[in-house]
Amino acid sequence: MSTTSTHDERIAKMIFASVYPLYLAKVEKKGRTKEELNQVIEWLTGFGDAKLQELINDRVTFESFFQQAKLNVNAPLITGVICGYRIEEIKNTLTKQARYLDKLVDELAKGRKMEKILRSS
């Protein structure tokens, strides 16, 4: 299933600060921590805790969030289906990056080992 331009635009305009608490609630409900969530976000984007908090406080859009990110070179190793879309088939770069993040959060919540989530081994 491919994304539509409306879908891609909706993701681009979404405020990261409005989604972050949902990510946090999802992982904490499954026994994971804010520190682990932030570690996953840092691995993907390069944002440390201070920069992440700044982006949340500035209420940046996903478009701005990923424009400022330095995506991990191993991000393309993130594959599979998330939200009904096969990540490797998504054409829009921003939508693909957002789904990378969704997939990492999902793996964290499902109890996957951190070295597997971070594509270390």
Automatic annotation (TrEMBL):
Pfam families recorded: DUF2200
Domain of life: Bacteria
InterPro entries: SP1917_dom_sf, UCP033199
Protein's name in the database: DUF2200 domain-containing protein
Species whose genome carries this gene: Solitalea agri
Lineage, top ranks: Bacteria, Pseudomonadati, Bacteroidota, Sphingobacteriia, Sphingobacteriales
